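Researcher: Good morning. I'm working through a list of sequences from a screen, and I'd like to move beyond sequence-only analysis. For each chain I'm collecting a predicted structure so we can compare shapes side by side. This is the next one on the list. No need for commentary yet; just the structure.
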Amino acid sequence: MVHELGQAVRSCFNQLQRCVEKGGVQADFGSCWRKLRVQLEQDAGLDPSDQVLAGVKRFGHCLGEVELLQTDTMHVSHACMGALKTCQSHVISSHGSQLEPAQAAQWQLLELKRRAEA
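Model: Good morning. Structure tokens for this chain:
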């Protein structure tokens, strides 16, 4: 079950990346991951769920800024971040009562860190 959860979380972030690339915002996609890495380092002492919330929020904000500079809109970033949230909610609900909230946060944080380090 734990391995399955990790794969499901990774799948959500893969969907995010495909969504952003499909929307044409990928030019500065990497800069948002670099900014996220700094954010995660600054928030290292926080609870994992708080780190995930702050990190995803910061990443979505950065993505919106990049898109706004490129296209004068934020449609792609809002849609992609909404899809990420929906995917993550589905992952958590599909694992039902077997899943501790802290476990989900740990997997999400690991995936954020992995992508921010890449």
